[in-house]
User: What shape does this take?
Amino acid sequence: MDFITIIDYIGTFAFAISGIRLASAKRFDWFGACVVGFVTAVGGGTMRDLMLGYRPFWMSNIDYLLVTSFALLFVVCLRRFVVRLNNTFFIFDAIGLGLFTVVGVEKSIECGQPMWVGIIMGMMTGAAGGMFRDIFINEVPLIFRKDIYAIACIIGGFIYYLCRYVGIAPVPTQFIAAMTVIVTRVLSVHYGISLPALNGELEDARSRKTSVKER
Assistant: This one.
């Protein structure tokens, strides 16, 4: 088993836990929580493979389903430790984001895609699963909010190619890129760094008109 496969499994476990943890907060049953965890873990990679013209990776390897099932048992058995910690979801989500970004970039390089495609595929692999998770639990996806989420994946993708360009070995490159995503995500939340939100001028104008009519 090579290092990128180990990263893939760890990322699957981390993302599955983040999805299961949120599903438990919404009081989903075990099956529903497992579905949310599985979609969180494989959603981004599925979109990546379809766009690159491949059969989705999990359809030819049952390991991803087994890893998700193990994540469910992990949360169930250690629920006092996992579910009740406010930072658990964020920590596992950040880890999964970083690891899956690296997996997405690696897969694009294997397919002979240019750098800009590799960065987009890395972002999609890292962020799309969380988007599906949020939709499943009826929340506005993080990728569409002000949070530094998908942007962290893009930064990690650039760092990956930079390390590759200067001749750093593959394993350190993967580690540095993943840590870049994780650290970017953690620091942005810790210091409240975010992208500016679009100003809802049209909605504000409608609200003012409604207020005037009511008067």
The chain has a mean pLDDT of 87. Residues 54 and 60 are 11 Å apart (CA to CA). DSSP finds nine helices and no strands in the chain. The radius of gyration is 19 Å.
